[in-house]
Structures are given as C-alpha cells and as structure tokens.
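Field reference: sequence -> structure
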Amino acid sequence: MREGKHGVRSTKQAIAIGLSKARRAGVKLPPPAPGRTSPDTRKRAIRDSARGRASRQWKPAKRRSRATLRALKREGHRAVSREALARQARSAARRRRAA
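Structure field:
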C-alpha cells in the first residue's frame, strides 16, 4: 500500500494484506490461533503459507492483473499513514492484557 500500488479501505485491511503477502512470499508466519479469527480467515492464512512454500507453477493473467491493479489504485491511501497505523497499534495494544 505504501508503494502506491494499491490502496485500502481500513488500516486493519492493510495489515491483513501485508500478512497475506508475507506468507505468500515464504515468511514463516503461523496462522491465527483457533477462536481468534473466523475459520475462513484461518483457512486462508494456512493456504497462503502453503503457497509460500510451493513453487510457482502458473503465471498470472496479464489483463486481469492490470484490471485489478487499476481498481485497487482507486482505493484510499490514508489508512496506511503513520498516524493511522499508530492509532491501530494503540487500539490493538489496549485490547491485549498488560504483560
């Protein structure tokens, strides 16, 4: 999002996209624990991790990629500003217990 390739609607969405991209790139990120997110989200995280371990066997369709990129570029970019990310981090920290 920061690179300007595409925008997001919320800061939470930006973080989720970042985690997904990292998993697909091969970063060893565990899926969320059962009960913390919806089963669908957990399943998607497991699938992303598997994709990060597998070798690329297909090439994305150029026309569809371009169409998707154009649509995503029209999304907002304020959700990934330093203030927005800091606000999200603070609210998430408030929800966690003091360690």
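Note: The chain has four helices and no strands.
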